[in-house]
Amino acid sequence: MAVIGWIGLGHMGGPMTANLVKAGHSVRGFDLSAPALDAAAAAGVARATSIRDAVEGADVVFTMLPKGDHARAVYFGDEGVLAHAATTTLLVDSSTIDIESAQALHDAAAAAGFRFVDAPVSGGITGAEAGTLTFMIGGEADAVTDATAFIEPMAANIIPTGGATTGQAAKICNNLMLFINLAATSEGAVLADRLGLDPQVFWNIASVSSGDSWALRTWYPVEGVVPSAAVNRDFAPTFTAELANKDIGLAVAAAAATDTPLEIGTHVQQLFQRLIDQGQGGKDCSMIVKLVDGTLA
């Protein structure tokens, strides 16, 4: 079994490391949040006191961080991963970050003699807990192959995407489609209600018809229809509006850089921004249904 260093033990990193421990790996985890460290330790992760402590002697290092700035801070500098890991250590960034930052990590790792892959995930907290995430892995073929062996306890699907940053590109485009689907699902749900359709009956139809989507099956924003939906718990977050705004913002930025019009995506980002502006950024992203039904202006 492997020695794994892990940095970032939040809503995703915590359950992901728990599955690695269950698979028999030795995991040393670091996070700036004491509660996150406590939760990981309860699942069998060894506490690391610093990035250096987490990565020294590791066969592989995973990072799962909120933004590109955080990833750069963790990898670069005198206290970063590149300064303290052995060059034989495989580096895997599973954060969802901008293409520019992902390329910077690839370039810096290569210059320092490391193998590095960008390997963001899809499947949310439920997928992280169940070990059924989809990993999208970009990088050199040998590094992708070696990373796959470490990833298997956390994943139902492991898909090589091509060269450097293609994992991030796939994740950005996937999340763009997810949030557009969520917005469409919210509008359809509200309209169906106002036309007199029973919510469960309409969901039963849409979920086996051309209106089906992962957002409809998992996040349907009408109370009592889909057990996993945040609407049943006053929009306690499985994926916050703030993070959704960040992720779809990555797509909008990538579109601007490639001269790609994203009229629908830009509108959906504005919906998330409206939630944030009204102090609801910490609520689940499916709360955009409240903008559709007029509960929030």
TrEMBL record:
Domain 3-hydroxyisobutyrate dehydrogenase-like NAD-binding: from-to ranges: 166-291
Domain 6-phosphogluconate dehydrogenase NADP-binding: 4-161
EC number(s) from the headed UniProt entry: 1.1.1.31
Keywords: Branched-chain amino acid catabolism, NAD, Oxidoreductase
One Pfam family matching this protein: NAD_binding_2
Catalytic machinery residues: K171
Listed Gene3D superfamilies: N-(1-d-carboxylethyl)-l-norvaline Dehydrogenase, domain 2, NAD(P)-binding Rossmann-like Domain
Keyword NAD: yes
The protein's name in its UniProt record: 3-hydroxyisobutyrate dehydrogenase
Family the entry assigns: Belongs to the HIBADH-related family.
GO MF: 3-hydroxyisobutyrate dehydrogenase activity; NAD binding; NADP binding
Keyword Protein biosynthesis recorded: no
Metabolic or biological pathway, per its Swiss-Prot or TrEMBL entry: Amino-acid degradation
Gene Ontology BP annotations: branched-chain amino acid catabolic process
InterPro entries linked: 6-PGluconate_DH-like_C_sf, 6PGD_dom2, 6PGDH_NADP-bd, HIBADH, HIBADH-like_NADP-bd, HIBADH-related, NAD(P)-bd_dom_sf
